[in-house]
């Protein structure tokens, strides 16, 4: 039974690694930037399509033609940096300096929006900055998912438990 669990864990890790590696490779081929745990910087005069960052922050001084999304990181748009689409962050904040521009919507979950008066946002600005919002959106569903996984493990262990012979 333990060898089956070990094989399952190894298979799960391989699938997770493969999914992360293929996503990053696909993103680099199309002009997108996707990172896991490493900050992304778009320099002046540089143009990229979409930017996605998991557990890291994004710093923009150039132009992003699409959307910018971070999970657990900040978005900083400096100087004359521009985002052609939407900017969304979960568990981080957004800072717009100088003549920074977001042509789409700006959405922040669990962070703050700091905006220079000369910076512009073309769409709506939505800020769920309270910690309660972050709890409702992220933590509670994770606990529910954990409970479901624990229940499934309990069922599998109970079904595979060897039965004891009846005492005479």
Low-confidence stretches: 22-29
Q: How many extended strands?
A: 16
User: What structural category do the secondary elements indicate?
Assistant: alpha/beta
Q: Output the strand order for the largest sheet.
A: 1-4-7-10-13-16
What would you report as the Rg, rounded to the nearest angstrom?
22 Å
Strand proportion, as a percent range, falls in 25-35%
Shape: elongated
N-to-C terminal Cα separation, in Å?
29 Å
Number of helices: 2
Mean pLDDT over the residues: 82
| Residue share in helix | 25-40%
Which sequence of SSEs, written as H and E, runs from N to C? HEEEEEEEEEEEEEEEEH
Biggest sheet overview: 6 strands, parallel
* Total number of distinct structural domains: 2
What does this structure look like?
With 168 residues, the protein is of the alpha/beta class. The protein folds into 2 domains: 32-129, no CATH class; 131-160. Helix content is 35%, strand content 29%. It is built from 2 helices and 16 strands. It has helices spanning 2-29, 131-160, and strands at residues 33-36, 40-42, 47-48, 51-54, 58-60, 63-64, 68-71, 75-77, 82-83, 87-90, 94-96, 101-102, 106-109, 113-115, 120-121, 125-128. The protein has a 6-stranded parallel beta sheet with strand order 1-4-7-10-13-16. The chain has a 5-stranded parallel beta sheet with strand order 2-5-8-11-14, with no helix packed on it. The longest helix is centred in the last third of the chain and has 30 residues, at 131-160. It is elongated. It starts with a helix and ends in an 8-residue tail after the last helix. 20% of the residues are buried. Mean pLDDT is 82; it is low at 22-29.
